[in-house]
Amino acid sequence: MATTVFKRDEVILLLGAGASVEAGLLDSSTMIDEIEKLISSDPAWMCYRELYRYVRSSIFFADGLDGVFDKNVPFNIERLVNVLDELLKKERHALCPFVGAWNPKLQEVAGDDFKNVRDFRNLIVKILRDEWVTLSETEKAGYYEGLLRFQRQYEHPLRVFSLNFDLCVEQSCELKNVQRGFDLRVWDWRMFDETLDDSHSLLLYKLHGSLDWYFKDGQVLYSDAPTKIKADEIALIFGTSYKLQYVDPFLFFAYELRRWTLDSARLIICIGYGFNDEHINGILGQALSRNNERKLLAVFGPSDDCDTLNVKIANLLGANPSQMIVDNSGARQFLESGLRISRLAENFPAEADLMVEIMDSAEGRSGFSG
Asked: Which residue in 167, 200, 240, 313 has the most C-beta neighbors within 10 A?
């Protein structure tokens, strides 16, 4: 019996923060825990304690008005930095003409000209880059080499979409094998053009930016020395609203995720993604609703219950639970041993079975039988 054969672009990968946790990097929720420790004990951070408490309590208050409380409030590093960025817009914010005055407590904790907000935001980005999502030992992320092993089985360029800032894919799979979209260090969308004779094994779309990217003169470039990039120049984005900006490369990446999940994909593999991003969920949900035969494989850690997650993800995406496949082996084990053509093919009818179904259906419509 023939097994399922995956054609070009029928397998798409999406990497979330959970994919890099086993490499020793922090996920977005753990980063919040670290901030709370720092503002309580580190003199360089303690001056932002009142600002942090004000922003955090405001977020929880706003969600409470919608009936979302306690642990159900999606509070993580992305949301925190996004709120700080929104505050920094001040008079440029779209809602400013409709607001009579700033909250007095906000003015107190934000400092003159919102200096505390700006400095706190940049301090978070700096420690995120220098410590939280920087590999101390490259070999800890060696399991990412599984992407290359799978690509060699697949025999087509593999499209990998990542929500992570880290360099795990690039350092484990080597830049010579990874197309990131740069031509002479300047980002250019045409490097992803499928008409190019591209010898790269992996096509990597970093939807939130990267530790080694920076903005300069309206362009995005990359540096071999990320720690030398100024915190306010690093090309990173936080929060759903920023993914909807008409700014490349981020607009292009969001379009490409929508394009390839809607177009050719039969299987979308999400590794370490927590399904907390409404914009990404919307793209995935639309892809699944457009094609009932399309499946989504979600890889979580060993402590997660597959049946519970299956229902939860289906509800979040507005999809049929039968389209969901949940694997709780963890990112490392999945990339090292689970990401195989033969294993993935088990989730689809064998090609021979498909041919029988098609022939039976055709005979039924014509009124003939064997």
From this structure: 313
pLDDT at 370: 40
pTM: 0.89
What string of H, E and C letters represents the secondary structure of 236-264?
ECCCHHHHCCCCCCHHHHHHHHHHHHHCC
Domain carrying residue 52:
28-132
Which helix (H) or strand (E) segment holds residue 270: the answer is: strand 267-271
- How far apart CA 266 and CA 286 sit, in angstroms, is 14
Same domain, residue pair 125 and 252: no
Structural domain contains residue 369 = no
Distance CA 356, CA 39 (A): 65
The whole-number pLDDT of residue 359 equals: 45
Q: Which two tokens stand for residue 135?
A: 């590999």
User: Rounded to whole angstroms, how far apart are CA atoms 55 and 83?
Assistant: 8
What is the pairing mode between strands 178-179 and 202-206? parallel
Q: Which residues of the chain have pLDDT under 70?
A: 1-3, 91, 100, 194-198, 239-246, 351-370
